[in-house]
Amino acid sequence: MSGDGRVFTLGEVSKHSSNQDCWIVIDGKVYDVTKFLDDHPGGDDVILTSTGKDATDDFEDVGHSSTAKAMLDEYYVGDIDSSTVPTKTKFVPPPPPKQTESNQKQSSELVIKILQFLVPLLILGLALGIRSYTKTPSS
Ligand code: HEM
Question: What is the pTM of this model?
Answer without folding.
Answer: 0.69
